[in-house]
Amino acid sequence: MNDTANEYARGLYMIAAEERREREYLEELRTVAEMFDKNPEYPVILSAPSIPTSERAALIEKAFGNAVSVNVVSFLKLLCRKGYIYLFKDCFEEFRKLYLDFSGTVRAVVTSAVELTDSEKIKVQEKMHALTGHSAMLRYTVDPSILGGIIIRTDDRIIDGSVRRRLKEIKEVIKK
After folding, report:
1. How many CA atoms lie within 13 A of 58 on its CB side?
2. CATH no. for residue 73?
3. Which residues pair with residue 137 across a beta bridge?
4. Residue span of the structural domain in which 154 resides
5. Pair (14, 71) in one structural domain
6. What is the pLDDT of residues 70-111, one digit of tens each?
7. 135 touches 106 (CB < 8 A)
8. Can you say whether the dihedral through the CA atoms of 3, 96, 151, 139 is positive or negative?
9. CA distance 155 to 58
10. Residues 18 and 91 in one domain
11. Whether 111 and 160 share a structural domain
């Protein structure tokens, strides 16, 4: 991720934390991200040097003035003025990461051979809470090549309970 985007996101996060509105800012940034996704030409217009900065700032105010807080609008205007609006998505991801880190939420990807049922997902959620002491934001993927079991990947560790890994271990023992 871009260092500049990280610095800007940290600055906005500090403001949000000072106001105790981290979650609210996160939701507002998500609103902006969704708007940019739906209208991919919008960030291009906001970064066009042929359009005066004051006009681009007015476009931001018009599009987001009623949808997000003053500080988030100011943040967007700052990115626009500095020529960094193209870094918005990176800023949003870094802000999201900071929010999860400071709220004690663990992010993980859970890979299984087949789609997990809702009750299995709840059990994985409870197990993650028991292992980490924090709530977990889990993303589920399916990979039939693991044959069975699950693999859980967090930022700093991998818990591999797959049948594929167990078969590999058995194979290595047999080779010895």
Report:
1. 5
2. 1.10.520.20
3. 107
4. 105-175
5. yes
6. 999 999 999 999 999 999 999 999 999 999 888 888 888 999
7. yes
8. negative
9. 40
10. yes
11. yes
